[in-house]
Amino acid sequence: MRAAQWEDYELIDASAGERLERWGDVILIRPDPQIIWNTPREDPRWRQAHARYRRSSSGGGAWEQRRKLPAAWGVRYRELRFQVKPMGFKHTGLFPEQAVNWDFAMEAIRTAGRPVRVLNLFGYTGAATLACAAAGASVCHVDASKGMVAWARENAAASGLADRPIRWLVDDCVKFVQREHRRGNTYDAIIMDPPSYGRGPGGEVWKLEEQLYGLLELCMPILSEQPLFFLLNSYTTGLSPAVMEYMLGIFLQKKYGGSVSSGEIGLPVTDSGLVLPCGSTAIFRAQPG
């Protein structure tokens, strides 16, 4: 599955551990450990980039500006608009390959023929939340970072969606799901893009491979009686799409019918015509009608 409908984003080239990308009118070079090939860098924009993120041998890294770089700027995907900016650890606040999942969610909601309540866990800067809201769903957006939720709200305003029925919550996703179960609240669709590794509020270590089954189990009681979809995304290299599909199958397909699918998501590379894999997605979808 490739995100090929972008106009304001382009993966121009990929070589020797780095991506050459266009974000609107801004050209960035960012590291990517999956790019293990060393092909000729013939595109002149390799030498014309506004900034390059250089990793440090001691860990982390920093942006090296080559041309004047805006502090933040806007990009658009269809009717959605996002503010992006160079962040620590190479990111910009947006994962463009996720556009395939935004498209899926929008189509599923628009063709559901009924009101849809969506829970977006680990919602980050809100792209999936805005896609669902634009399609007509009411959305609960949950992320543990106050800064990310504030950024998501800015993206909603930029997209003209500030008045849509979206709950913006700064909370621990696991604890929130547990409380929703106790409160008896349910959702017709759940989107989940958990981190590969991190630490909980009490300093406990989070490893997705070890926590994912339990997290999915916690989510089952807060699904409505007729769930529309469950979308699970991962950037954890040790967690294959087939494993994620299997887990959604045992939790959802036996009880609700429907279908389960999975695959890698990626971005087309302009210079080679090939696709750079960027992550994995598994989706449960209810039977139409």
Question: Can you walk me through this structure?
Answer:
By secondary structure, the chain is of the alpha/beta class. The chain contains 6 helices and 16 strands. The strands form 4 sheets. Strands 10-9-8-11-14-16-15 form a 7-stranded mixed β-sheet. It has a 5-stranded mixed β-sheet with strand order 1-2-3-4-5, with no helix packed on it. Helix 3 (146-158) links the parallel strand 9 and strand 10. Helix 1 runs parallel beside helix 2. The protein is globular.
Strand and helix map with partners:
Layout: E1 9-15, E2 18-23, E3 26-31, E4 51-55, E5 61-65, E6 73-77, E7 80-84, H1 99-110, E8 117-121, H2 127-134, E9 138-143, H3 146-158, E10 166-170, H4 173-183, E11 189-192, E12 197-199, E13 205-207, H5 208-219, E14 229-234, H6 241-256, E15 259-268, E16 275-285
Parallel strand pairs: 3-4, 8-9, 8-11, 9-10, 11-14
Antiparallel strand pairs: 1-2, 2-3, 4-5, 6-7, 12-13, 14-16, 15-16
Helix pairs in contact: 1-2
